[in-house]
Amino acid sequence: MTATIEGRRVRLFRNGRNQAIRILRELELPGDEAIVRKEGACLIIEPVKAMLLRELLAQWAPLDESFPEIHSLPTEPVEL
């Protein structure tokens, strides 16, 4: 269970044509992406959950191509 932090008043400012706020250190989200949505008069900001590799691969369609054969190549001695 996560701790609830009491609301704090922040200033809104403009960043180009966008309205923005600074997220207080104690409210920082993990990662470098978030999802923002509006519910009534409230803005909800949620961190983007990191996708596991197997979840990503499950989204991809299988390849219809076969891999080429790999033949053994002669090796040359290497001086270390």
Protein described:
It comes from Paraburkholderia humisilvae. This is SpoVT-AbrB domain-containing protein. The chain has one helix and four strands. The protein has 80 residues and is mostly beta strands. It has a domain at 13-59. It has a two-stranded antiparallel ribbon with strand order 1-2. Strands 3-4 form a two-stranded antiparallel sheet. The longest helix is centred in the last third of the chain and has 7 residues, at 53-59. The N and C termini lie far apart (56 Å). The mean pLDDT is 87.
Give the helix level as a range of percent.
under 10%
- How much of the sequence is in beta strands? 15-25%
- Please tell me what the overall shape is: elongated
The Cα radius of gyration reads: 25 Å
Q: Could you report the average pLDDT, rounded to the nearest whole number?
A: 87
* Number of E strands: 4
Structural class: mainly beta
- Oligomeric state: single chain
Order of helices and strands: EEEEH
How many helix segments? 1
Q: Separation of termini? A: 56 Å
Topology:
Elements: E1 13-15, E2 18-20, E3 34-39, E4 42-47, H1 53-59
Antiparallel strand pairs: 1-2, 3-4
Task: Looking at this protein, list some descriptive labels.
single chain, 80 residues, two-stranded antiparallel sheet, two-stranded antiparallel ribbon
